Amino acid sequence: MISGLFAALAAVAVVAAGSTASLAASKSKPPQKLVNYLVINEDSIPEYLSGRPGDPKQGRKLVISRKKGNCLACHKMPIPEKADHGGTGTDLTGVADRMTESQLRLRLVDPKRIIPDTMMPAFYKIQGLNRVLPKFKGKAILTAQEIEDIIAYIVTLKE
Ligand code: HEC
């Protein structure tokens, strides 16, 4: 009984040592690991990538930010304080009337799964991209939580 307890404690110590080592390794060179996600009906990702809902206020900032979503470069959105809205993509005013949250999530994560030759960038993808800027090599443009923040904002775009 007692020796069983010792064995269990020893096992815990080994696991802890192992995780410290991998933490140290990831500090020296952070290889980004994307969260696994499930695609259903070929057009939707039903679950939060980050495991929790996003913040719509943060999402509104991210869609404006040129270094993050930069969605206004291609889309019109109900963001009147910004003068320039591009017209390459669709007008996103009312997009949440046309698509579900799960469909919007796949659009952001990997739009080429739906429209193979779309101009829209995949915001949460590393492999299989064309023309990646050096600073984005090996790194997704947005984090899982940033995707959720943007989703939380665009689901409010109803007419
Ligand atoms: C380089 C241009 C570009 C950027 C940047 C871009 N998109 Fe798009 N997006 C498009 C195009 C073009 C389409 C239309 C699909 C197609 O025909 O390729 C589209 C389609 C969409 C759709 C589907 C809308 C519909 O009515 O079918 C959503 C939603 C969307 N984009 C959201 C976003 C969001 C949110 C961002 C910023 C995080 C973003 N896009 C950034 C070009 C872009």
Summary keywords:
Cytochrome Bc1 Complex, Chain D, domain 2; disordered N terminus; binds heme C; mainly alpha; 159 residues
Write structural notes for this entry:
- The chain is mainly alpha-helical and about 160 residues long.
- The chain folds into two domains: about 1-30; about 30-155, Cytochrome c-like domain (Cytochrome Bc1 Complex, Chain D, domain 2, Orthogonal Bundle), CATH 1.10.760.10.
- Helices cover about 40% and strands about 0% of the residues.
- It has five helices and no strands.
- It has helices at about 1-30, 55-65, 95-100, 100-110, 145-155.
- Helix 2 crosses helix 5 (about 145-155) and helix 4 (about 100-110) crosses helix 5.
- About 20% of the residues are buried.
- Mean pLDDT is about 85; it is low at about 1-25.
- The site of heme C has 24 residues, from helix 3, helix 4 and helix 5.
Distance between the termini: 66 Å
Q: Structural class, from secondary structure content?
A: mainly alpha
How many domain units? 2
User: How many strand units?
Assistant: 0
**Under the CATH scheme, which class of the largest domain?**
Mainly Alpha
The biggest beta sheet reads: none
What is the N-to-C succession of helices and strands? HHHHH
Could you tell me which ligands this complex binds, including any ions or cofactors?
A: heme C
Radius of gyration: 20 Å
Q: Which geometry do the CA atoms define?
A: globular
CATH fold-level assignment of the largest domain: Cytochrome Bc1 Complex, Chain D, domain 2
Give me the CATH superfamily of the largest domain: Cytochrome c-like domain
